[in-house]
Amino acid sequence: MGLLDGKVALITGGARGMGEAHVRLFLEEGASVVFGDVLDEEGKALAAETGATYVRHDVTNPSEWERAVDTAVSTYGKLDVLVNNAGILKFRRISEMTLDDFDRVIGVNLRGTWLGVKSVIEPMKAAGRGSIVNISSIEGFVGAEGLSAYAASKFGVRGVTKSAARELAQFKIRVNSVHPGAINTSMVMDPEIMEAVDADAFVKSMVIKRFAKPVEVSHVVAFLASERSSYCTGSEFTVDGGLLTGAGY
Questions:
Q1: How many structural domains comprise the chain?
Q2: Contact, 239 vs 212, CB < 8 A?
Q3: In angstroms, rounded to a whole number, what is the distance separating the alpha carbons of residues 104 and 99?
Q4: Alpha carbon distance 59, 184 (integer Å)
Q5: Which domain range does residue 151 map to?
Q6: For this structure, is 54 an active site residue?
Q7: pLDDT for 247
Q8: Does the N terminus or the C terminus of the chain have fewer Cβ atoms within 10 A?
Q9: Which GO terms describe its molecular function (predicted)?
């Protein structure tokens, strides 16, 4: 028996990295999964391999949100879970960052999350309950050099999560945020970031001295999507190996 048996989930940014791990684990746990991305080649390949349903999905576009949600409801009859996973990271110091770059990060990470919450309210009300899991970051708690736009967006995700949790509790829709730390994905391992960061010092600052596998985040996301977290809403879950304990950070 799976943790998510009978659930229908929509996962954004699901073609690779953490999103791919979410897709795979949700399927293993019994969910029916629709996932979106702008990476068509990777998305179609993952769908063909796993049996999940892929839809091209730019999370900054309201009409594409409507299409993704409609795909889930028309294919599986309802929508129980949204994982707002899609995100981008641009390493630039404020003095060097263009306004277009800033707007792009805010657009995907924050506008996309807000649009996701807005887009699933009616189908979740129709289902009688729901769970929204917003993927933020430890950068939603602390700033980091070169990541002003990313940190701003992830701080914003925290605010959207808490407001939505209050607004949607009356409909039995729970809203929580997950805050990954050092996860071994292509986004985090971007060469620009690696060049600017002292990797040895960073690892030494960790309590658990390694980067996480993406699925280690997925297990927390699946818990929040499931009925086992039925009394959790507006909460913030760190998956950071102790980085935010303050030890050397």
A1: 1
A2: yes
A3: 8
A4: 23
A5: 8-245
A6: no
A7: 43
A8: N
A9: oxidoreductase activity
- Pairing outcome for strands 81-84 and 8-12: parallel
pLDDT tens per residue across span 69-120: 999 999 999 999 999 999 999 999 999 999 999 999 999 999 999 999 999 9
Tens of pLDDT, residues 203-218: 777 888 788 999 999 9
- The answer as to whether 107 is a domain residue is yes
Mean pLDDT value across residues 147-154: 98
The whole-angstrom separation of Cα 182 and Cα 242 is 10
Q: Which residues contact residue 157 at a Cβ distance below 8 angstroms, ignoring those fewer than 6 apart? A: 84, 109, 110, 113, 134, 135, 136, 140, 177
* 3 in a structural domain: no
Q: What is the CATH number of the domain that holds 84?
A: 3.40.50.720
| Helix or strand holding residue 249 (H, E) | none
The encoded tokens of residue 76 equal 């599986």
235 phi and psi, to 5 degrees? -100, 160
Paired tokens of 122 = 């009616």
Q: Which residues contact 189 (CB under 8 A, 6 or more apart)?
A: none
Closest of 108, 166, 160 to residue 134, by C-alpha:
160
The answer as to whether 212 is a domain residue is: yes
Tens-digit pLDDT profile for residues 125-150 = 999 999 999 999 999 999 899 999 99
Spot the catalytic one: 54, 150, 231, 249. Answer: 150
